[in-house]
Design goal:
transmembrane helix; transmembrane; 185 residues; PAP2/HPO; elongated; 7 helices
Length: 185
């Protein structure tokens, strides 16, 4: 059964990756770089200061950072256990897919997906009581994770599991945040 799931994952990856258009390669390479999203991270922090007084804003920022770094650490732990080759490093696929990046670490599960969904979900949970517009923040991780398939470094299964892990960590940290920060309300 697991072999069948991996086969579907590979076939879906090859199909989605093949939809790439060379004219848009530079856009997707730009999008997939986490450093290019620093302005968005700053906007998240600004939201905290606009929504809460400074003590609670700093407290919330620290919890967001803890959420992201814990998710990142867990992701790397699992990658070291699962040892799944990235599509760009898979000799069976390298001749039939578009490869725009060539990382050499492992694929399962996507750190871009887990950390971006952890950050976004935590921010949404914290701020959604103040504004429903914050749900638009999910546009970022969706574009971010799509880029990983486009540049040839993650299977769809890596992305889906990463998304779920990120959301779960965000919910857990949000619950801890609520219990820890009662005195700041």
């Amino acid at each position: 059964m697991w072999e069948k799931v991996e086969q579907w994952d590979r076939e879906l990856f090859v199909y989605l990756n093949s939809l790439g258009i060379e004219r848009y390669d530079s856009f997707w390479i730009f999008v997939t770089n986490p450093q290019h999203w620093i302005p968005l991270y700053i906007i998240f922090f600004i939201f905290f200061f606009l929504t809460f007084h400074w003590k609670k804003a700093i407290f919330t920022m620290l919890f967001l950072l803890a959420t992201v770094f814990t998710t990142w650490g867990f992701t790397n732990l699992v990658k070291g256990i699962a040892l799944r080759l990235r599509p760009n490093n898979n000799p069976d696929l390298s001749e039939i897919i578009r490869i725009l990046q060539e990382p050499t670490n492992y694929s399962f599960f996507s750190g871009h997906a887990s950390t971006s969904f952890a950050a976004t979900t935590f921010v949404v949970l914290v701020i959604s009581q103040k504004t429903k517009w914050i749900y638009l923040a999910y546009i970022w991780p969706l574009i971010f994770v799509m880029s990983r398939i486009y540049v040839g470094v993650h299977y769809p299964g890596d992305i889906l599991v990463g998304m779920l892990v990120g959301i779960i960590f965000a919910i857990l940290f949000f619950q801890l945040y609520q219990k820890s920060g009662r005195s700041l309300y």
